[in-house]
Amino acid sequence: MHRLAKPCSRAVTTTRSAWAASPRPQTSAPGNSSVRSNTKAPLATTLKLNGYSTAQFGKCHEVPVWQTSPMGPFDAWPTGGGGFETFYGFIGGENNQWDPALYSGTTPIEPPATAEEGYHLTEDLTDHAIGWVRQQKALMPDKPFFVYFAPGATHAPHHVPKEWADRYRGEFDDGWDALRDRTFARQKELGVIPEDSDLTPRHSEITAWDDMPDELKPVLARQMEVYAGFLEHTDHHVGRLIDALADLEVLDDTIVYYIIGDNGASAEGTMNGAFNELANFNGMAALETPEFMLSKLDSFGGPDSYNHYSVGWAWANNTPFQWTKQVASHWGGTRNGTIVHWPYGIEQPGGVRSQFTHVIDLAPTILEAAGLPEPTLVNGVLQSPMEGTSMLYSFNDEDATERHDVQYFEMFGNRGIYHKGWSAVTKHGTPWVMVGALPPFDDDVWELYDGNSDYSQARNLAEDDPQMLAKLQRLWLIEATKYDVLPIDDRGAERFEPGVAGRPTLIRGNSQLFFAGMGRLSENSVVSIKNKSFSVTAEVDVPATGANGVIIAQGGRFGGWSFYVKNGHLKFAYNVLGIHEFVTESDQSVPEGTHQVRMEFAYDGGGLAKGGAVTLYCDGNPVGVGRVEATQAMIFSADETTDIGYESGTTVTRDYTPVSSRFTGRINWVQIDIGDDDNDHFIDPDERFRIAMARQ
């Protein structure tokens, strides 16, 4: 949202439902590094330097993952180099709506209430945004403002109060094919698509509703009920923010951009959908059997779920286009519905504009509306020209000649080019297939569409006009070279590992030292223990009353591990996706005094996600043995963290709660060491500790 101050600036509010203008798993290539050049100042910075109050609420997925620890650096955070004076939200691609990992500025904070007490992230973000705008107008009534409101909704996990989902009970029992037909008819009735548009057919990779297992259909229908309730719930709270602007009598002079979507609806939930979407990200979707899914039917959308809907629903929600999010070649993976509201500057409300626009056009539009020039020098740094084109020319002229007439697209090898109505596209990979080799780029088949007469990309003209196709393929290569798209990197899950991806990492070597009280450490801030042997060693002081609580925990309810003490006994719990939990317990308690406790995990090897043997030690003496039958290969969580001496967020095991997770003794230090699986040898923690202390 952008409030313009007379005479040379108005007001802007930008709200987006799950807008992921985000760094994907980064590499070392310039166009995939997630590092923003200081020659490209954010819009918020430009506005702030021109007298605007600026605030961001919700999702921030622009911080390089190696800068997400409590030590920053904070240059890429909203209140660091992002240009926002206020930030309240989360860092990363998604978050638990019931128990989010929140930040105020750069300070980690806990949610003000629990799910049981009625907490939900979207409501909380809206409350903060309304409070900020009211305070801004009360204290600085003549100063314009810029608000970026980006709720985690309706990105996965699809979390919503049950009563909102229940409003749609039975609405989707006839499946996604029928929903797509109804949506298409409704779009034409409303006039949001041309009357001569064609409905694109379902590709063979997407299963027909009638061919899905009958026993799974109640679960599939519930997934869409939850999503629909989540979407309405989000609209309700966005409406509260809009109402607040109206109450302050600034709405008519505020540009509101409401961008609905996430680069197309997401198909990352597999054909069966997911109770825990991280199963597919770990290549373990098969664990969620139809029987398991049915057992969780009533829990979808609630605090015990981390759910995502089926590919079929994503396809239906991208009507009338082909494909889904991640397939950046086709409109189904790029086009989002967008509403622009600005009574002060738009003469005839309710119109539909057909000129091509892109999200990069938003900043130039706001600057032109505010009467501000494109910046050439910001904080002493010469700025590169903005690539976008202001949309303002089309606001009051629906027949205006299109000005943004060329745009490339690329994601994970799926690529396309738009030029003056025409588009050439090629699909390289399938979003819900995250494991396995992809075909060579040279084998990709290009398609050609004339958007001047074919709105939905329904009629492939590649064979009819090979010269136009060749022209656009060449143009894609020119644009891709110009904007650092090359080299194309189609790796998927491999890019979660810094060493494989080729990006920076905070971790040096095979050992990491922690101290009591450290917490909210993102997964990229901690040495990876996945698919290998590792040990955890700690020096603890146990009081006369005995010890309880977490020594170190990583992840949470939907996947992770914890080394802790209960009733004086050492315990190690490994939670696989919230489906399987493997617990090892010592056969004797840790006595009073200072002791070294240790857990060793000897990985079986032979591939990813294998199991291993667990041994617990106290002062070098084995006190317990156990086994973990399977592990997570790629990622524990998108939002849960590592904590020392307590556990924030949800808990890895129900053996303790967040309230009772705090260690009751004293933790002097904790160390993770990665084992040398070739000779089954662990690094000596005492030696590592001495080296670490010597370096300080």
Class per helix and strand makeup: alpha+beta
Oligomer: single chain
How many helix segments? 13
Uncertain segments are: 5-12, 15-23, 678-696
The overall average pLDDT, rounded, is: 92
Shape type: globular
Please tally the β strands and state the result: 26
C-alpha Rg, in Å?
26 Å
Main pleated sheet: 9 strands, mixed
Distance between the termini: 47 Å
Percentage of residues in strands: 15-25%
| Secondary structure: helix percent | 10-25%
Describe this entry's structure for a reader.
The protein has 696 residues and is of the alpha+beta class. It is built from 13 helices and 26 strands. It has helices at residues 43-49, 121-139, 162-166, 175-190, 217-247, 278-281, 290-295, 311-317, 362-369, 392-395, 466-482, 498-501, 685-695, and strands at 2-4, 10-17, 53-60, 86-91, 102-104, 107-109, 145-150, 254-260, 337-341, 377-378, 381-382, 406-411, 414-419, 422-426, 447-450, 511-514, 534-542, 549-556, 559-566, 569-576, 580-589, 593-603, 612-618, 621-628, 642-644, 666-674. Strands 1, 2, 3, 4, 5, 6, 7, 8 and 9 form a nine-stranded mixed beta sheet that branches. The protein has a six-stranded antiparallel beta sheet with strand order 16-26-17-22-23-24, covered by helices on one side. A hairpin with a 2-residue loop joins strand 5 (102-104) and strand 6. The protein is globular, with a radius of gyration of 26 Å. The chain starts with a strand and ends with a helix. The model is unreliable at 5-12, 15-23 and 678-696 (pLDDT under 50).
